Amino acid sequence: MTMARLDTEVRRRLADASATVRLRAALAVGSAPEPGDVAVLVERCAVEPEFFVRDMLTWALTRHPASRTLPVLLRELRSERAQARSQALHTLSKVGDGRAWPEITHALLTDADDEVARSAWRAAVVLVPEGAEPALAAELATQLGRGGRETQLSLSRALVALGESILPALEAAATAADPGVRAHALATERLLRDPDAGFAFAVEEAKRVVALQDRPAGDD
Q1: Which of 3, 79, 126, 217 is deepest in the core (most CB within 10 A)?
Q2: What letter does residue 1 receive in the DSSP assignment?
């Protein structure tokens, strides 16, 4: 595939109105990777509306050496477009190159956009260097109680992936003034102890515990 073709036909197909055409174009580019593909694929990730097409774009990017993709992906982390940041983080988690770790910043882990934050949490637990897990757990624990069920489930999964190192952060969060934070911390600890427990069950059980904690003394 020549650069001329990439700049014309492939760009056109990646922007086609049909998601099926876009998917096939991403598959074709990934099946025969060339250096010039990277910038085009990352650019498309920022605007592609369909999840399954974005996933194929990510796959196509992983077909390139990390030394080629990292500089482009890391620049995307500073984009004003939330989807660009989110998708770059998702791709970095798939590339799995530890050189990206310093770029998983507090700003990304606490991003106001839930999708960006969720992608940052997933990338962080993949890229965190040995020994940095407790500090990451403490950072992630500041987000306990945030968002709806899917966001909370993503955070719990990220924390559980760090293993026993999360316990001090969860224990501290379990004493927070906010009952939502306490419930989320307790539910996450339950999932750590019993991975087979469903998240919904763990949350409901945690809410009952918190309700009992908040019950006025002497109430029957």
Answers
A1: 126
A2: -
Give the other-Cβ count within 10 Å of 158's Cβ.
Answer: 24
Q: Any residues with CB less than 8 A from the CB of 39 and at least 6 apart, and which?
A: 72
Interval 53-99: pLDDT, tens: 999 999 999 999 999 999 999 999 999 999 999 999 999 999 999 99
Q: Which residue's structure tokens are 């910043």?
A: 105
Query: Which residue do the tokens 């809410």 mark?
Result: 207
For residues 84-109, one letter each, b for 16 or more C-beta atoms within 10 angstroms of the residue's C-beta and e for the rest, the string is bbbbbbbbbbebeeeebbebbeeebb
- Angle formed by the axes of helices 149-161 and 114-127, nearest 10°: 10
**Cα separation of the two ends of the chain:** 75
Residue 122 · residue 90 · CB < 8 Å: yes
The answer to whether 85 and 79 are in contact (CB under 8 A) is yes
Count the alpha carbons within 13 Å of 156 in the hemisphere toward its beta carbon: 29
Cα angle value 107/121/209 (rounded, 5°): 110
Chain CA centroid to CA 105, Å:
13
pTM greater than 0.70 (yes/no): yes
